[in-house]
Amino acid sequence: MNLKNLSLVTLILFITSLFVYHQENKRGTDLLSGSDYIKGLDVNKIQKISLKFDNDKKITLTRDSNKFVLENHKSYPASTEKVNDLIYKIASIQVKEKVDSNVGDKELEKYDLSKEKRKYLVELYDNQGAKTVSFSVGKSHKGKGNYLHKDGKNDVYLSSSNVWINSSYKDFINTVLLEVNEDEVEKLSLNIEKPLEIVKKDNDFIVAKEDGKEVDKKSEKASEYVKNLKSVSFDDFHPLNDPKVLSLNFDKNIRIKLKNKLVYDVKIAKDKDDHFVKLQALMEDAPKEFVVNQNDGKKELQKIEDVIKAQTEAQKLNLEKGAWVYKIKKSVFDKLVKKPSYFL
């Protein structure tokens, strides 16, 4: 073999080795089937979650101390459980296979991954404001997985299962305004048309007073009313200083006193076809300090513990819900607003 042929063979071998190295290195960076699409996601470093949808909807969840709020929906507190579910869903997206490489804008369109066609755009930011994750979710492939593309990358992957992200801000909040265990109710004071007092006596609810006059009458309607307080939901919310609710007349009132001295104060207003409530938690007849004696039994200590828990619950409720006016459905309004004649 002459020198010229040897040089040619050497060149071919060198080029081949470069190609093999490139392919091996490329395979090393590709995601394997069954691997996580987003690797090393640190929940504690997520400061903001931005979700954009194909119908121009946008949801932004921003961390505020130890909770997230809906930044673009009046900064209402998001449900910690539902935000955690979202983060888990993002972290759990797995790859089935790589379907394309070196894609440009034109190639992204056929997977519905372009800015105009994508189904979702998911972006995560750290506490320095830096974007740490950004990927788009495209159309489904025969109902089995969606196409995925990371911002700034050239590869398109297919997820192992369909990716679904809720697009309504209501999906990220707890719409239950009030939950009352009827076994814990001690007394209800209603001021709808005129004052009415309902108390629990021998495991039954009785109408004790009407307009200040003694009644002492058992009422099945009263028991039914208390059961309806088990779960009171709202439909929308407004800050207290929102001009839309500033002029509302909260002329109806319900006070629900529990055995642990916690009182839910519910104020109700009606404006044409719309219905609203405000909620505040109070402590009634609770001692300012506790004295524990060595002779106190478990029952006495449990009472003290229950009151302390109630104080904590009252503070939490006022912090989360006391600064808002809630819009409720007419069906909820009708369950809450009952005239004295309904019970008698």
Question: What is the strand and helix layout of this fold?
Answer:
Layout: H1 3-29, E1 48-53, E2 58-64, E3 67-70, E4 76-77, H2 80-91, E5 95-100, H3 105-110, E6 120-125, E7 131-140, E8 146-150, E9 156-159, E10 176-178, E11 185-191, E12 195-201, E13 204-210, E14 213-218, H4 220-227, E15 232-233, E16 236-239, H5 243-246, E17 252-258, E18 262-271, E19 274-283, H6 298-321, E20 324-328, H7 330-336, H8 340-343
Antiparallel strand pairs: 1-2, 1-6, 2-3, 3-4, 5-9, 6-7, 7-8, 8-9, 10-15, 11-12, 11-17, 12-13, 13-14, 16-20, 17-18, 18-19, 19-20
Number of individual domains: 2
Across the major sheet, the strand order is 4-3-2-1-6-7-8-9-5
Kindly state the number of beta strands.
20
| Most strands sheet | 9 strands, antiparallel
The average pLDDT is 88
- For this structure, the quaternary state is single chain
Radius of gyration: 30 Å
User: What is the CA-CA span between the terminal residues?
Assistant: 115 Å
Q: Your description of this structure?
A:
By secondary structure, the chain is an alpha+beta fold. It has two domains: 141 residues, no CATH class; 168 residues, no CATH class. It is 27% helix and 34% strand. The chain has eight helices and 20 strands. Strands 4-3-2-1-6-7-8-9-5 form a nine-stranded antiparallel sheet, with no helix packed on it. A hairpin with a 5-residue loop joins strand 8 and strand 9. The longest helix is centred in the first third of the chain and has 27 residues. About 3% of the residues have low confidence.
